[in-house]
Amino acid sequence: MKANIHIFFWVFFLLVIGISCKHQAEIGKDFIIVDFERCMDEERLMKISEIADTVEYLELKTPKDIIVTRISDVLKVDNYWIVRSLAGICLFTEEGEFVRLIGRKGQGPGEYLGIRGIDYDPKRKEILVADAQRILFYDLEGNYIRNVKITEDFFYNIGISDTVLWTTALGIHQEKHLVYAFNEQGDTLRFIPNSNYGMTVKNTDGVYFVHSRHEKEFYRYDSQLYLKNRAANDTVFRLSSSDIFPHIVFDMGKYKLPIQYEAWFSNVDYEQHASNYWGIPNVVEGDRLLFLTCQRRNGVGNNPYEPNEDDWRYMVYDKKMGSGFVAKGQLQDDLLGGPAIWPRFSTQEYYVGTVEWYELYPDVKVGVYNLSPELKKQFDGFGHSTNELLVICKKKQ
User: What domain of life does the UniProt record list for this protein's source (predicted)?
Assistant: First the structure.
């Protein structure tokens, strides 16, 4: 394999210097610094009308044998929605009508073993699917085009910038790299080394790692690709072709989980201490605001299958003002009177949230919300077979 490798120790040096010299949240010349502690100390109500002109609940209509639940990716491509869920990758019209599945699970040509991530290449109009040890390419008609093999032993998710493919790792002690960039010929263009690689850990009974279902390593803003790697939980990078630049630094302060409490290092210590620390599994960026989904590194509830509200904070950061706060109860729906909304995804025109109808229905049934007539009529038409809903919020212009 041809190697043209640049190791970016200077990136980490720059970040360390920036954090140590600036204690307040501010916008630097080259990247944004967010004082996480300070933002956590302030809480206030925020309404969806402050960021959106309209709200629409989009029903995703599918054949009876396809159930859309636990949505993990939403992309807006031309006049379509691409939705990744437990059902696989589905293509929908803008009105929510099912068009087709993209790829299938299996071991045959053009089939995947499991989906680790998806992205879209607007230049070639191709959907990228990260599978075990390879990237699969499909067109919008669902036709399998080709695949590119991955030589890294560990990789998760996929993002494309120009023609450069970017993958990420978990950052555990068995992985050499945190981030890895390559072209379709298999040439390594760039990587960031994993400082945890080869570390002697306390675990002796296996390898542990923790994953949030809301984890999203890559996002797009203003046609640029951004990376918030799981291991670099306090940094967002801007990716441009094979170049990488620090974009946002989260000064986590007392909320940053020490390495000795990471699950991959000591699962016993993780279980005992990690609930005191916080991570940011998802970042949604707008022209002025950042929407940061914040989660305890370990839940405080006794039942892992029943989410505890105290495990989550919903943070809003103003890039222009250099300040942020926790949005109490997410964003209040003062437009349709529905449940609180939180952006999980973003397109050029919309902020997009999701809600499971089966979770929402009990509160709707007993009249918890003061629904507008139009929303009440729509909800009355939903039933047991209704898929997870997209909450489409049109951005203020």
Answer: Bacteria
Write the DSSP assignment of 15-77 as a string of letters: HHHHHHH--S-EE-SSSEEEEHHHHHT-EEEEEGGGTEEEEEEE--B--TT----S--EEEEE
CATH 2.130.10 for domain 26-395, yes or no, is: yes
Q: C-alpha angle with apex 269: 180 to 306, nearest 5 degrees?
A: 85
Question: At a CB cut-off of 8 Å and minimum separation 6, what does 107 contact?
Answer: 113
Give the C-alpha separation, 209 to 172, whole Å.
8
Q: What residue ranges in 216-304 does DSSP mark as E strands?
A: 218-221, 224-227, 235-240, 243-251, 278-285, 289-296
- Chain-centroid distance of CA 185 in Å reads 28
What average pLDDT does the chain have? 90
Rounded to whole angstroms, how far apart are CA atoms 280 and 219?
13
Q: What is the pLDDT of residues 222-233, one digit of tens each?
A: 999 999 977 556
Q: Tokens for 373?
A: 């007539």
Residues 6+ apart with CB under 8 A from 260: 202, 266, 269
Do 349 and 314 contact (CB within 8 A), yes or no?
no
* Nearest Cα residue to 44 out of 248, 292, 293, 329: 329
Q: Edge-to-edge strand order for the sheet containing 117-121?
A: 117-121, 126-131, 134-139, 144-149
Place of tokens 């495990």: 311
Those residues whose C-beta lies under 8 Å from the C-beta of residue 391, and which sit 6 or more positions away, are 55, 56, 57, 58, 341, 352, 353, 354, 355
Question: So where are the chain's domains?
Answer: 26-395
pLDDT in tens, 26-55: 444 589 999 999 999 999 999 999 999 999
